[in-house]
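Q: I have two molecules that I believe assemble together. Could you output structure tokens for the complex as a whole instead of separate predictions?
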Amino acid sequence: MTYEVNRRLAARRPPLATDAVVDPVTAGIIRGAFETICFETATHLGRAASSAIINQSNERNASIIDGHGRLAGLSVGIPQLLFISPLAVRWGLEHFDADDWGPGDVFVGNDPDHGGGHLPDYNVYAPHFGDDGRIVAIQALQAHQGDTGGKDPGGFSVDATEIYQEGMLIPRLKLVHRGRPRQDAIDMLVRNNRFPSFAGDIAAMISASQRGAARIGELVARWGADVVRAAINWNIRETERRFRAEVERWPDGVYEADVWIDHDTVGNEDVHVHVACRVEGDRLSVDLTGSDARPELICVWNTFSNSRGYAMAQLVSMVDPTIVKNEGLFDAVELILPEGTIVQPPPNKPAALGAFHPACEIGEAICIALSDILPERSSPQVYKLGMPNAVIGFDARGQMWMDQGVDVRSSDASATQGIDGWGSMCSGLGNLVLAQAEDAESRFPVINLSRDMTTDTGGAGRWRGQPGTRNVKKVLEPTTAVAWMVSKKHPLRGLRGGDDAGPYSNFFEFGTEREYEIENSVQAQLPAGAVIAYQYGGGAGFESPLDRKQEAVLEDVLDEYVSVAAARDRYGVVLTGSVEAFDLAIDEDETRALRERMRTQPPASVPRRKRVERIEVRLVSEGSAKS
Amino acid sequence: MSFRIGIDIGGTFTDFAVQSEDPLPDGSRLLVDKTLSTPDDNSEAVMTGLARIAERLGLALPALLDHTDAIIHGTTIADNTLIQMNGAVTGLLTTAGFRDELELRRGFKEDIWDVRLEPPQPIAPRRRRLGVPERILADGSVFEPLDEAVARLAIARLARQGVESVAISLLFSFVNPDHERNLAKWVREVMPDVEISVSHEVLPRAPEFERTSTTVVNAYIAPRVTVYLDRLDERLAAAGYRNELLVMQSSGGVMTREYLRGSPIRVLASGPAGGVVGGAHIADAKQAPNLLCVDMGGTSYDVSVVVDGRALAEPGWNWHHRYLVAVPMVKVETLGAGGGSIAHVDAGVLKVGPHSAGAVPGPVCYGRGGEQPTVTDAILVLGLLSDDSEFAGGRFSLTRRGVEQAFEKYVAGPLGCSVEQAAYDCFRVVNANMTQAVSRTTAGKGIDPRSLTLLAYGGNGPAFAAIQADDLGIRRVLVPRASPTFSALGALAASPCIDEERSYLVSARSADVGRLRALWTELDERAERYFAGAGFARNDLTARHQLNLRYPGQNWSLSVDVARIRGPRDPGFIDAALPERAIALFHELHEAEYGHHRAGEEPEITGVRLSTSAEISRPEVAGGLESPRRVVTPIKHRRAHLGRGFEPVGIHRGAELVPGDVVAAPAIIEESFTTVVVYPGWEAIVDDAGDYQLERRD
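A: Yes, here they are, computed for all two components at once.
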């Protein structure tokens, strides 16, 4: 049933019926107006929502979908998630008559088996009807909710075996009928959610979608429904044309890659994603056949809609960024997501964590596969962390507090041809806003001891990955800490001969006799004063480190991205002097000789199972200097 | 006889606006002028321009300056330093473990789709960002003492790298600045000549990234701004000016040279702020408290909003030239759309901008070697401009030579259309871009544009304004006669102002009222001292006390007004009931800003803010429409395309229009530095001040 629904929802949809002819300039103006409407709608939601994840972390995404359920326009947000709404809306549209769709209606859906992403990602959508009684376009919003009413607060259960444990499923539900809120339905949603702020969030999503629909109405009043429909058709066709034109320039062939996740949440190892990208003329197919389908895997099942979104987010990052993002992308690519595998699971599989992994590994695999033919735009648009270290406690009044640990960090910022990895994360996550020590410490009994980048954790390469940070935190009261670790055994892969990124690792009760490393997942009790030390993986390197300009390596060592030892061992660059004395210099002769030698006898690649060195961190002993 | 002189330095022109106490020979009290900028040393153009003004007033320069009460100066020196990235060699000393805060940018990247986006050029590369063992906690207590030995090693490391400017930013230094002070002292011992910027002085508030980034940018621009302003100071003094030089700040207020010595960062983005302040100033007289200000020049289109007659200045998430600068800044959205924006076809799609032909080579029609078609060329083809009129105040005439060929080659050919259609398409695209920029600005503030009056200035603003107005449902457009020198006029209208904050993070009901009082008093004494230096007495000052609050979990605070005190300090309002009052005000403001509030939730105070300002005499603005109406006939007609195909359009000479004159559509009014287009459906009226008011007529 699920597979059949997925097939139907994902099938290519025809253009809208319209008699109007639109010129490219008008089509472009209407496209720009769509993007502005989406920006306005997302901004409204960001301002009106009450929970931090939406109003600060910017996990809110707006898109416009046409009467056939095709993506017609979108705004800033998180690329992966911006591509998710159409299928949820299509499931709604299939019930147009039964659900009595009409002007002023607003719907919600989150069911992974009916077009949704994972349960926390609510899709709220509001249609605008033309004078002819037909839908012109639908304003859709996608935003992450803090809770879903499942067995664990937040909706992420590391031991869930079926989706019912994760929370309430909503295939589709009408929240507003002809402009009038259906309070019974809204109350039911609110009652099934632990977060008091949810009521405000869902109200904000409803009002934002209505605002978007009204703005679409103004656009239709200005141009006429038929012209707007013709513009949607033109823009989707144009995107498909441009994407295909890019593919046509790629050499024909089959490009394959394999990526592994260390383990699922209970320790089943080496969860496997395989991709084969076939290029033939202007046709591209992305086939994930061969990806894992082991029934015993827990929590690492990505939903169908999410798999499409993550695959497309990676693909669009590898083409001209000025190509307009709409349904034309999906029209231009054949996505093959084999049924029953971790990229299109059987019905009722848990979905919360799978929406991270293997979702990200789909993107990573596509990036690796195409990196040989698209070196200038190969940069994995992923996050390889399982989850950050969240610490939870109760204050004197018995109120729960939670430091989610989404702190400033560097992770997975990889190099691409000509550009070293930089900043905090990949480009696609550039709208997130990470948390600050001075905010957290004013609210929670924690001290952020350190979060410097760790030298040598960026993959070496002709262009190198950004090192990962080591985030060290001390809890001042007894707390519960939750973690899920991956990407230690299988860190982010280097591209075209670049080194892999440094692996992830995580230690609890660090610096004491009870110190232990989190190998998989944990919900631990920490005593007051305990220290947790989380090493984020770095970005991956690009092409051989032996081809990096020796002057650039010297600069890297001066900046302590790279150590003197790694300059020699990975880059073949021999330096004299020291960082501290600021008198580093390249030993030209030694370097030439060493690089020559390393070229003919390549050093062992960075050991895949590299043991994480015991972390040396400056630790302040409790109370030693308290005034 | 006394004068106040506003000066705004732009990329091409340096603008002057002189306010005279006594009527000038032409009966007005305002004189405006322009001179070409001198980018190598901007103070040169200032002196040249002042000499010319003195001549026009029939005075010697020393006599003019002797009678000048205030010179108010908007400068782009800080912006140019960041655009050209040629500031000081800058080092950063920070809490050990937080060395990379600056580079990680809280995760922010400017483009989520483009993996080829280059990193910003580092102001302080990692080798010059050094951690120093020390730690102060949120309550100001010392968790780990400052390690002098390691600190001195770090300072030595910076010295070896030849740093010219040092930023110091430690965690929670705004609560307890001892460690920052000690570090500054040791830096001074080792490097007596470097500039030192300490975060608890530059931006004494949380959180660490915002404070650190602002401090580092301050350190980077400080030497150049200081040298420039010192030189200007000296030149003015040598020429006979005896008062304090006032400098425009990004907040829209002005302050003395002395005040800005400590935080030159506050002059960043002060140019556009001047225009917005000018808008706020005329808002009242024109009965238009809520304005959408659009400034379209040669390369950019700046959009901002005036609400209730005030230019909104917000501290916080202000990204500027790829760096975060968290001082209060008048919010201006800039789009790469101006007269010089280049039209080109990219993969079958017509695009206009963001690249500009600038002043050199300029649009094709300037006849200075430009080869690519621009917006100015498009409106020449469409007849909005003409090659038989004077341009840029009569400095040169436009030429049609090469314009059609340029459109044919770059636009019409690739798109397969006529040259006139290509020009019209450029016109439509640039208009759509501008409309969307405006929509983003109003959406970001939650404002319905239909409630606004559009104020258009800059050389190109008035030619397009009514199009955006139509697109957004705005029914009234103002075009000041002084439109091309509007930012200089704004400098004259700006109040001297010090707007500062102090952090104090606490649940609102648990706030220590004594501490609130102490923080406000500290800010107040600071402000009073600088104002005294500028010649203002306590009684001239108004102190606006604000509390910054937010709901727990929010990143951004709102400032609520809790007391506005004129004259002597009076902390009487700071009582035990203050937190409760502030909470109620915050709920109310949150409702107004975001459309909802959380009645049951206790907000947290994040700090106190004090905005101290002084009243000054501003240029008079009139705005009435009392003059008897008279529909004027055009001096001639020209074939032009104003959106409904080519048709004869009436041409008016702006210099000949007087208050009460009504210009019917379609019409084009040619002013010496700008062109006002009266589109179909609109009507232009010259108001009692001689400014244009365009109104929608249906």
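A: One point stands out. The first strand of chain A starts at residue 60 and ends at 66.
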